[in-house]
Amino acid sequence: MDVKGVKFHYVECGDPKGMIVILLHGFPSCWISWHHQIPTLSKHFRVIAVDLKGFGDSDKPSARKSYRVENLVNELAVFLSMLGVDDQNKCHVIGHDLGALLGWYLVHLWPNCVSKFVAISCPHPNVHWEYLPPSSFFNKNWICFSQLPYLPEMDALQSDLKIINQCYQHLSKNKENDDLSYIDAYKYTFSRTEDWTGAINYFRNLPFYRIEPRSNNDSLNKEEDMLQVPCLLITGSKDVSVQMESFIKSTEFLKTSTVRIIDNASHFPHQEQPKVVNDLLTSYLVRVKVVQKELQPRQNSGGIVGRMKDIVSSTVQYGNTLKDSVQKRNILPITAMTSSCQN
């Protein structure tokens, strides 16, 4: 799909008339990161797993300015509108890592188009960068290193793509299944210098952006500034790339939020514990239709006046064919911060 001159590659599965669930992958990855979730979610939704700009088979412009937050979010909003998402036909957004970070900006800037948001392994952008643990491979030192031209891309290609090996250790441990083939797929996807430039450009921009409050105070704690979209935050119990405190503080920016910790999972819980995560996503996203059902009076009740009602759930309620609409939005501004990296 062409969006403002940028080609977006995506994989689609499920009912073409169903409610859209868009999947936003992390770094370094592509749409294939969601191979465990696509079959399950497509039973209920129209699933769109997209390669973000700069990744996979989507276009990879090399200019750093192409990856400014305002450009990324506007393009993603247009992409959704071309799929049919609007105020009347909302979508669910699920993001992991870098994709979740982009998702945070999307739901803040275009809340009327999103029904629910799921952030996996990524806290709110206003706290994310301040809480990067030193133990993370992508810690503040790496963020500073990524600001340099060319060298980060060259470094990423060294030692048999060491970044891929570092990120996907959980796949290399499972030699009895097909996980090793996914490592090869990731390495093929990031086999050239240009495959890294766009991806690293996210880190050359996003760490310096924050969500601004609508009011004049310097925080988002007022109710009118809080994100109204219901949010589910998922993190692995063994994730050394983020701090649990950052997820707790993220809830301060949200009117409705749920935090779930996945046992025996690190930074990729949707890959390490796919069944647990899939069950969680399904129970959170699938809307239920409430139906009244008459019950027979209990035999030992001695006579009951009136009729008893019971509530049963039905996993229905799909969306309709959607229309393009990206005009009027209640936009919460974002701000670019001036900052210097220090070791």
UniProtKB/TrEMBL annotation:
<keyword id="KW-0378">Hydrolase</keyword>
<dbReference type="InterPro" id="IPR000639">
    <property type="entry name" value="Epox_hydrolase-like"/>
</dbReference>
<protein>
    <recommendedName>
        <fullName>AB hydrolase-1 domain-containing protein</fullName>
    </recommendedName>
</protein>
<dbReference type="InterPro" id="IPR029058">
    <property type="entry name" value="AB_hydrolase_fold"/>
</dbReference>
<feature type="domain" description="AB hydrolase-1">
    <location>
        <begin position="21"/>
        <end position="272"/>
    </location>
</feature>
<dbReference type="InterPro" id="IPR000073">
    <property type="entry name" value="AB_hydrolase_1"/>
</dbReference>
<dbReference type="GO" id="GO:0004301">
    <property type="term" value="F:epoxide hydrolase activity"/>
</dbReference>
<dbReference type="Pfam" id="PF00561">
    <property type="entry name" value="Abhydrolase_1"/>
</dbReference>
<comment type="similarity">
    <text>Belongs to the AB hydrolase superfamily. Epoxide hydrolase family.</text>
</comment>
